[in-house]
Amino acid sequence: MFNFFSSFKISRVFLLSILFLTFIIFIVVTIFSTFIFNNSRIQLVESLYLQAQSINKLIPDYDEAINFDEYADNLAIQDMNYNELRVTIIDHNWNVIGDSLVDSQDLYLLEKHSPDTRIEILEALNNTYGSTNRRSESTGLDLIYVAIQRDPNDIKQGLVRVALPFDIWGSFFNFFIYPFIVLFLLVIASSSFLSLNVEYTLRRDLDSLLKSTRKAIKGQNISELNSDDKQLSTLSNAVRQIANRLNDEVKQAIEQRTEFGTVLDSMNQGVIIFNKNYKVRFSNDIALEIFGKHQFFLKERIEVKKLQPINKLLKKLKKSSSEEIELSIKFKDEVKYFLISGSKMESTNEYIVVISDISSLRKLEDLRKNLISDISHEIKTPVAVIRAGSETLHSGSIKDPKITSKFTKSILDNSERLSEMIEDLLELEKIESGGLVIRKEKLLPYVEINKILNTIEALVVEKKLVVENLIKEDLVIKTDKESFRSIFSNLLNNAIKYSPEGSMISFKYYIDKKSKVISVKDNGYGIEKKSIHRIFERFYRSSKARAHTKGTGLGLALVKQLSTRIGCNITVQSQINRGTEFFVSFKDK
Known about the structure:
Layout: H1 2-7, H2 12-58, H3 68-75, E1 86-90, E2 96-99, H4 119-126, E3 130-135, E4 142-149, E5 159-165, H5 168-217, H6 230-266, E6 270-274, E7 280-283, H7 285-291, H8 308-316, E8 322-331, E9 334-345, E10 350-357, H9 359-394, H10 401-432, E11 440-443, H11 445-455, H12 457-462, E12 466-469, E13 477-480, H13 481-498, E14 504-511, E15 515-521, H14 529-532, H15 543-548, H16 555-565, E16 569-575, E17 579-587
Helix pairs in contact: 2-5, 5-6, 9-10, 10-16, 11-13, 13-16
């Protein structure tokens, strides 16, 4: 017997049926008890109304000399449950002049029973009678009150009010709780009795089937269910067949998913799969990295404003099998470009979007366009000068020594300019393509600067310049020697080129916690603020530089590329007509 009850478990169906029946009983009992309660109250009010009329006839007309409290006490009666009828007589000034439950000497303590404080009196003045139920402040009992006017045509006769105890909670238990409990227990007993045997047998077979199903989920072999119910036996066989097939399909799906995931993760492109409602169903890690975290979420549409072109692409894919768009997004201070290709899978009505980062290609394309444009612009002038001079000499002017000397010098100068430009371009290409071999070694900047000064001493003397090397003699830095010489040779040449005769150029040094800085300062024309951020661009020369000096516009571009290549940082400060100072910062390692 103990084993029987320990193996018996209450099913959800049984519980739901009990809950449903309980709900029905609750509704029925509520409606029935409400009806009985209201009907009982109405009957009690009508009975009190009749008693109030009878009492009114037994009370004499109002006279201040009459002791109405004795009439109230004499007319109070008790019912079968020993509930005493309360009789209250009220004059036209709303004073209580008689009450069966209050001693005559205490009547003056009662507050005025006016329409403002008593609902039943207010209703009695406007209707045949007034009624209400509340707790009496003088007796502390829950009473139901009925009040009538003694003479509807003469308010001076006052009012008569009768009341009986009315236990709301007792009524609630009598008319609702007790019937509900009785019916509920009957339902529980009958339902339990009827379902006990069926429930036990069905639960036993279902538990066996559940255990078999759990084994099947784990990939274990399951045995056939021995049950008297043919439907359960058939269901058990079906579960066993499904389990075998499911195991095979799960193994195959795992293998395919592993292969699929490996392929997607090994791609350098982002992949997002959307369902037919444009909600993200799958995304590989590359896609999340491309757009940044929290830009889109699984099982949700893309809501971020900057990615809305993807939603437009998906809408286009409803009409066509494949579409492509380009998308540019600003990340902090950098703009990235993406090629987004979408295709529709007709079999599942899903959309596959492939994101390719083409920022480097776009930058290369822009650099190529700008480079071609700059080269064409810069070469155009010397080529035009050489051509014009050659045509002039070819037309017969070569016989004039003065003209010949002038034009041949012009041709020579512009040829040298073209040669310098080509050499600088080749050097830039060598740096950018990684052809420059970096060999970092310890060197003394003071010594290297002096060597550079010796090579261009003639230019310094020609312009009557004073060059100071204020770098500490024992200062040591570690960098590529050739790159160091190229950087400061170009900076010194620029300083000489843009400095007026007789001015000063100085090399200084600064040391902080993380780097050693070497600067080149001149007292030349200076650089306009609007041009400072462009001076390291290829072929760029400010308007003053073009007006006062010759050059290719590639020197500072070479300096910038070399500095980046060897891990340095170069900055510039300049004031118009007060000079320019370049700072080259070497990391202190």
